[in-house]
Hints:
By secondary structure, this protein is an all-alpha fold. It is 65% helix and 0% strand. The chain is built from 5 helices and no strands. The protein has helices at 4-8, 11-28, 33-40, 44-53, 60-69. The longest helix is centred in the first third of the chain and has 18 residues, at 11-28.
Amino acid sequence: MFSKEELESSPEYWVETAENTIWRMMTESGLTFEEIALKSRITPIRVYSWMENGDFDGSMEEFVKLCLACNRKPSIGIV
């Protein structure tokens, strides 16, 4: 078991947290992957892959497009 401090100093922890947030946003939008793809102008296979396995390997531009397609505004906080 890792301490909170150990987790928060791990890049993997922050990547996983961000990927989970993106996956949750897409699934909670109520849109199908086809609808998200159409609205974001990202290929359906990429959107499907992100929704199916939760691994977001897209660019910052794709992140913003996904947010807007899901009727969300992107926000990134650095503490």
